[in-house]
Design goal:
CATH architecture of the largest domain: 3-Layer(aba) Sandwich
Radius of gyration: 24 Å
Strand order of the largest sheet: 2-3-4-1-5-6-7
Protein name: Amino acid regulated cytosolic protein
Pfam family, one: DUF463
CATH superfamily of the largest domain: P-loop containing nucleotide triphosphate hydrolases
Distance between the termini: 36 Å
Number of domains: 2
Number of helices: 14
Oligomer: single chain
Number of strands: 12
Organism: Nitratireductor aquibiodomus
Length: about 500
Amino acid sequence: MASLTTYTDEARIALDTLAGRATGLVSPSLRIGVTGLSRAGKTVFITAFVHNLLHGGRLPLFDAQSSGRISKAYLEHQPDDAVPRFQYEDHIAALVESRIWPESTRAISELRLTVEFESASAWNRLLSRGKLSFDIVDYPGEWLLDLPLLSKDYETFCHEALEMAALPARADLSAEWRALTHEVDPNEPADEMTARRLFEAFSSYLRACKADHRALSTLPPGRFLMPGDLEGSPALTFAPLGVEPGARGKPGSLHAMMERRYEAYKTHVVRPFFREHIARLDRQIVLIDAMQAMNAGAEAVTDLERALTEILSCFRQGRGNLLTGLFSHRIDRILVAATKADHIHHESHDRLQAIVRRLADRAIARAGFSGAAVDVLAMAAVRATREGTVRQGKETLPVIIGTPLEGETIAGETFDGETETAIFPGDLPEKPGLIFQQPGPDEENAGSAPENPLRFVRFRPPRLERTAEGLTLSLPHIRLDRALQFLVGDQLA
């Protein structure tokens, strides 16, 4: 991939990093990026991360916590005053008091959690101040998918967008936009209303791709789906045209106007996002909702693999040395986590983890070559179900028990959001590659691809348990402790 930055960007990054390192001598910090595509559970992960450290949660595999070496954890003012604060208090109230999932990430936000601890090493206790701040940066994965645009000109963007829109999983959704594109002459005089019609048709196609029944993931430009404070600006009012790579727009033409706005989008939206946020990260977790993709079918799974590869290729991965570390950050640990592991029985967790590794194989190989440590995990930052068994004839089936969200349906039954029920979620395939195959009667797929699509329902957050003394316990989870150990455990050793 071509460079995502200019010499000017690199100079700014170096100055920002040097200033940050100087501050870190007095107040050491670790900057953790949390991203994922919509509904992957970014907000829930951060809320559970913070809640379990603030309240001494049950984290047996998080060594600093389980060994009692964390003496105190508390929230502090974040270092970046221009970035919105992650509203932890609102999100934890939604989970615990209202038992509703907090609103999804719509823009970038940040939270500082400071931990006071005792190192496990006598040598480290002499050198370390025993205090470390985690600056948690929450941002939409859709925005990250824009970073590859920095290495593409407008004509290449157009060619790739039209090519992807014609794929079988997208052709019907993109038909209106593609028809409008074919009607328009790129060399006609620039016209604001034509640009707006093209933009609206293109945006509608992207939003349709994102809907649950398709669950497609590779949908740049990301701000078309989550515009934030840029909604309605000229930098967002563009769309691909039917132009070939290498073609150039005539001055004053629709082509020239669209190209100018595309370049403005890269310059004023994408490049600052990379420079000010992504290039400053030390650790990264990428959350994916593999369940939703599997519900939608093989095309959605393949598209998720494409998106995940593009996302992981955008990070500055690897280990820096003492000198280079003064001027630039490198992400030396990346965790790829499939969320909502509580939607299946624990007997299938290893299979879900294998599916995640299969999805991330190419990206993991690339990261490994650059020196970054990568792990994959099946987890639930907040566990909404518990496990049980039911008898069906002579067979005993493993089930999960919880309260499905209102409107969720399975086997013809629609749930009311109040009734707890036991559900047999089915089994994930033993071979991860099978989820990429379409079921069908043809000889090649017969007997290999699943006969029926997998179907998972979404559940309400759980009621928190109380001790005999009436104390409310922390949010239950699946492998949140293992995630924290990988992401930050070495910094608290």
